[in-house]
Amino acid sequence: ATQRALLAADGDAGGAAxxxxxxxxxGALNKEAPLKYVLTLVDNALKDRPAxxxxxxxxxxxxxxxxxxxxxxxxxxxxxxxxxxxSALERVLQRDSTDFYTNSKACxxxxxxxxxxGDAVPxxxxxxxxxxxxKQLAVPSVDEARLACLGLRQLLADDRxxxxxxxxxxxxxxxxxxxxMKKSIQLLYEASYCVWLMTFNAAIAxxxxxxxxxxxxxxxxxxxxxxxxxxxxxxxxxxxxxxxxDNVNAQVMIDAGLDKLLMALRARKNGDEEMVANIEFLxxxxxxxxxxxxxxxxxxxxxxSGKLDWSPVHKSEMFWRDxxxxxxxxxxxxxxxxxxxxxxxxxxxxxxxxxxLGEFARIHPRGKEVLEEIGAKAxxxxxxxxxxxxxxxxxxxxxxxxxxxxxxxxx
Length: 411
Prior knowledge:
Layout: H1 13-26, H2 32-48, H3 53-68, H4 74-82, H5 86-94, H6 100-117, H7 123-137, H8 142-155, H9 159-167, H10 170-180, H11 185-198, H12 202-205, H13 212-222, H14 226-242, H15 248-255, H16 258-267, H17 273-293, H18 296-305, H19 317-323, H20 329-341, H21 347-363, H22 367-373, H23 376-383, H24 389-403
């Protein structure tokens, strides 16, 4: 008989007998060549007719029937039979063998069985396969990591496994793979696909590792392959849509420059309707959060924390024009705090403070006069000789804003 005919229609006695025989051989053989042959037969049978998987899953049910008919063997025997067909494949993977073909076929078949077995799969087998996949994912080998990703894709279609794998730290490992394996486009795609599947779980999307969003945005920025870009956009859309109402991830995305990337992507022609929809969804979400994050209260908190960064608020013309008179409160206390930040040791903070003081001088009716009165102008002039190029640049721009009546004329 051909390999395609080895396992007949679902429920056929001959097909069930072949399934039982194959599992018995997998549990007994040790030599590589016969193991490869049997694994290939099983793999082909599952590929040619996916419904054949039920013949293998039925072996555990058959154990219950045997015991009901007085099959014997006691509790230990029943437990052993109930772990079929999983235990036979676990045995293959537990051998001291480095043969990639044998291990990859055994892993693929076992993962298929666990994914399809549902609640009937023994907990020990679930633990084994999830542990094995995570171990392979962490191996510094593209082939091993790809094998793990392909197995994870099967499990992650089920939300129960998303939670189990997240608790086991698999998402952190996937992010590490995305960061460290960027030269392998196919592995990058498969790892990002697994991340995408995991973020369909709302609890996971709300608690993604700190490095996930920056890593995905870096990948989106650096990779040219459309399939990788598509997965990155889909991951970010899931995180925003399912990650709760807080704007923490949106702030991280904005800080990482996603809003500018989205502008470039929107300008490109794209025939992928789903990707276009996700880009528009993210663009709208970023715009909403930029407005929220540009509030004067958020700005005050940032300035008073002393940890200035190039967040969208600083370069928002609307923010400065809508809030410029609020800088007068408490005798220009916020302006004086910005002046004090010019003395910090952090060049980024100094550069942002220079920029903000320049914007105050440009837009406030008495801005130039106020900065001269509090001594900020002299400090800005001195910073034009700063050793950091960004501080020099922003100090120069601010002094220019102080010196001209119409800033627009400098353009």
